[in-house]
Structure formats: structure tokens, C-alpha cells
Amino acid sequence: MIFTTELEHILNQIDLDAPIPEKEPERQYYFIKKARKLVEKETQRLGRKPTCCVNTFGCQMNARDSEKLSGILEETGYELIEAEDADFVIYNTCTVRDNANQRVYGRLGFLNSMKKKNPHKKIALCGCMMQEPSVIEKIKKSYRFVDLIFGTHNIYKFPELLCSMFENDRMVIDIWQDTNAIVEDLPVERKYPFKSGINIMFGCNNFCSYCIVPYVRGRERSREPKDIIREIEMLVADGVVEIMLLGQNVNSYGKNLENPVSFAQLLQEIEKIEGLERIRFMTSHPKDLSDELIEVMQHSKKICRHLHLPLQSGSTRILKEMNRRYTKEQYLALAEKIKREIPDISLTTDIIVGFPGETPEDVDDTIDVIQKVKFDNAFTFIYSKRTGTPAAAMENQVPEAVVKEGFDRVLKTVQDTAREQVSRLNGQTLLALVEEVNEQDASLLTGRLSNNTIVHFPGEPSLIGKIVNVNLKENHGFYYIGEMI
Ligand code: 5AD
Ligand code: SF4
Fold first, then answer.
1. Mutate which of 205, 208, 288 to test ligand 2's pocket (most atoms within 8 Å of Cβ)?
2. C-alpha torsion 381→60→201→340, nearest 10
3. Ligand 1 site, residue 403, Cβ cutoff 6 A
4. Which residues line ligand 2 (CB under 6 A)?
5. I need a surface site. Which of 15, 213, 304, 459 has the fewest CB within 10 A?
6. Cα(285) to centroid of ligand 2, in Å?
């Protein structure tokens, strides 16, 4: 990332009549300056700043990408708003399950009706869904009104793409199959002043047989530790107290660097950053979670007491078909070890129900693991067939009614065990980072405990961004009502 003052200094020295730089990020600085002129024209035409709405689907990785898009838009002169009647609407899409795709198609129809009333309205699509050739074909055929399409690998080129969009009447499409490039030092506009996601790696090499992510996010690439540390230091200087290190599989961080570094070593370096209060990370793959990491977490004052450890299935047979590379027993042993070494930890997980060939007995195994591990929360998904993945070609797809039955049983177990598990905190006083005013009741604040549990309590909005002591009074399943002490 880069701060506005430094960027301004760089932009002042750029001559738009000189040849366009080849190197990144200099090339994008050039296009930010150029885009400013194009946006300025819009400002004159409208008699006000043009507005832009970035709508994010999917995971934390996409949320961070949207902050990067927003940073660039802000620097080029757009006013960021949340309403889709904006002059420019961007959908940052997800394709991990088919219902995410269907939502995008549905909303595109709605955007088209808005564009008919405002022909100057611009529409861009980016993110994981755009990496699928069949999606691009469909949009080219049935959604001709879209102005710009780009993917996950060239998001840093957004300033350049923005200029192409203004200079072309036809749909601009730029999708890359993969990339080795990691471009640093572009502007970012954070959603929260006091907390931030930060990419430590991109892509995934695991190829779980149901998952489309390796195909749309490419091969695993880690950022250099010094770049990560520098970015966190800048964030802390800018008021951030909590960071979330992002990667599809953070436990394999650093393996492909010129000078390999383990994730646990990276955490130890980050821990030293003064002013940083809390460190989170996501996501951990059970097969790569090291004893070294457990030890570092155990001794850390800043690493939060939360581990998201996707189980996916409790059946060893299904896990093998999923290419997860651990057994039910190995997962149970790992969870037990983590809980033994870090007694105040909360474990959360992801579960898929209805993977091809899954029987009610396999679901029983999943339920058995949930009951034994006692997750604080579990995200339960119905298996979604993703074209191009090995599981999509498997013949024994499970009938919908059987999936539904298994899903309901898993959900009920998750709810029951989570309620019991979360209730162990009853009466305790713990530190919470105050995140926002409660959406339903403005007299309450919403805070997050180190172990990721949410607590609502009476308090003043001036406390937002502060870490305060809260006594946990009433357990409401996944969250608490509390009182500040
Ligand atoms: N169907 C259902 N859920 C899926 N996930 C990934 N791919 C699929 C799929 N094809 C879930 C996994 C993963 C989470 C991010 O999404 O549980 O951990
Ligand atoms: Fe998908 Fe598996 Fe990679 Fe996670 S680890 S992104 S589930 S392939």
C-alpha cells in the first residue's frame, strides 16, 4: 500500500506526454494520473463528483481486493457510496459455490434496468467468477451492457483498465490465466480505520477435489516477509490495532520464497511490531498445521485465541475422495493437541455436506467429529458442483433430498454444540475490540473477543476502535450480551 501524500508526490512528477512506463507499479501511477483527467471530465459533465459503488461477494480475500479497488477509485476522483444507483458499479465476484454466481446474474438484470435510465452508468465485473471461460462467454452473449471485465490476477492493473474503459465504447475484457507478479505500493481504502486484512500469499496448490479456487486464483505465491512487515507498520502508523493475515492456506506460507520462511517465523516477526495489539489469520489447512505454530501461538501475547480449521468432512473415506490428505483420527488428534496446548482457544470450521458418494454413515462421522471437537462455530455448506473440478466428474452425485437430510442433521449438531461451547465463557470478563454501533439497537456497541466471539454491550460510539474489558452476561448461542467493566 501507499499513503496519499506519498502518491501525490509521485504523481506530481509524472509527465503524461512521456512514454508510458513498462515497470510496475510506476505504470499504474501513470494511469492513475491519466484516469484523474478522465474522471475530471465526468465531474464537469455531471456538475458533481461521479459516484462509485464496489459490491463484494465472497471471502475476506475479496473484501481486501475491494479495498484496493476503492483506494484507486478514490485517488482518481470518484466518490465512494454504497448504493447501486452510483455512476459506476463494480461487482467483485465469488464462484466458490454456484449460488454466488446465480446472485450475480440476478443482480446484473437489475443493473441493466438502471443503465437504461442512465446510459452513462458504467458497470464492471471482476473477481473469481471472471476467471471461468464459460462465465465470460455467457456475459459476452447475454449481458452486453457490461463495460469492463477483469480477473483475479490483474487487479493491480485497475488504473490502466479504468482508462481503457473510458476510452472504449465496447466491452473491455482482460483476463489472465495466471501470474507470478505481486505488485506492491498501490493505494488502499480501508473499510475500518482500526483493523485491516493483509494478504500474505495468493493462490492455492492443494486442489481439494470439490474446490474451484486453485483454478481461479492460480498457484501459491507468498509475499516477502519484509513487504508484509512494512505494510503492517504502515497500517499501525495509520491507526490499525488488529490485523488479519490472509491466504488460502497460511500454514504453507513462505515455502516458495527464495529464502524460505515458515508461517510461525513470520508470526514471530509480526509480533514484534510495536503498537499492533492483535493478530489473526485465515485459513489454516489441517494437513500443514505445525507444532511450531502451536508453540508460537501458545507463547504469543498478540495472536488471537482463534483458529479456523476447515474439517470439510469427518469421514476418512470422503476426506480421501476430497483429496484433503488427513484422516478423521488425524483431525481429532490435531484438534485435541491444540486445545490441550492452548486451553482458551476457540476452534471454528467449514463443513461440506453432500459430496459425491457421501452416505448417511459418512454424515454420522462428521457429526461425531463435531461432537468430539466442540467447535465454537461451523459454517456448513451444501456441496456445489463446480465445472472443471475432479468432483464434478464423479458419477455418484447425492440426491437433493438425501443431502438436505444430512445437512439438517449437521446444522442441528453444530448449533447445539456451539451453544454449549460458547457458554463456557459465561460470567468471564474479557477484552473486546469495539467494532461498531449495533445494527439493531443504537444504544449497544458490538465488540469482538480475542477468540472471535461477538459481544454486544451498552456504550458510546467514541469507543469504536478501542479495546475494552467486557463482562459476558448472557449467552445467545453464537454471541453474548455483556457489560463494560
Ligand atoms: N461446494 C460447497 N462448499 C465448498 N467450499 C469450497 N468449495 C465448495 C463446493 N464446491 C467451502 C469449503 C471451504 C469454504 C471456503 O467453502 O468448506 O472451506
Ligand atoms: Fe479450496 Fe482446498 Fe485450496 Fe481451500 S485448501 S482453497 S478448499 S483447494
1. 208
2. -60
3. no
4. 204, 206-208, 211, 213-214, 248-249, 285
5. 15
6. 8
With a 6 A CB cut-off, is 97 part of the ligand 1 pocket? yes
Which amino acid, 423? S
The Cα 481–Cα 266 span in angstroms is 35
Q: 448449533: which residue's cell?
A: 415
Test site for ligand 2: of 211, 250, 283, 319, most ligand atoms within 8 A of the Cβ: 211
User: Cβ(309)–Cβ(349) under 8 Å?
Assistant: yes
Measured from the CB, is residue 350 less than 6 Å from ligand 1? yes
Handedness of CA 291, 293, 296, 299 (dihedral sign): negative
What is the pTM (predicted TM-score) of this model? 0.96
For every one of its 485 residues, what pLDDT tens digit does the chain have, with 9 covering 90 and above?
999 999 999 999 999 999 999 999 999 999 999 999 999 999 999 999 999 999 999 999 999 999 999 999 999 999 999 999 999 999 999 999 999 999 999 999 999 999 999 999 999 999 999 999 999 999 999 999 999 999 999 999 999 999 999 999 999 999 999 998 899 899 999 999 999 999 999 999 999 999 999 999 999 999 999 999 999 999 999 999 999 999 999 999 999 899 999 999 999 999 999 999 999 999 999 999 999 999 999 999 999 999 999 999 999 999 999 999 999 999 999 999 999 999 999 999 999 999 999 999 999 999 999 999 999 999 999 999 999 999 999 999 999 999 999 999 999 999 999 999 999 999 999 999 999 999 999 999 999 999 999 999 999 999 999 999 999 999 998 899 999 99
Grid cell, residue 237, equals: 502508523
Ligand 1 contact, 384 CB (< 6 A) = yes
What are the cell numbers at 58?
Answer: 465472497
Half-sphere exposure of 119 (CA within 13 A, CB side): 1
Ligand 1: which of 59, 211, 319 to mutate, most ligand atoms within 8 Å of CB? 211
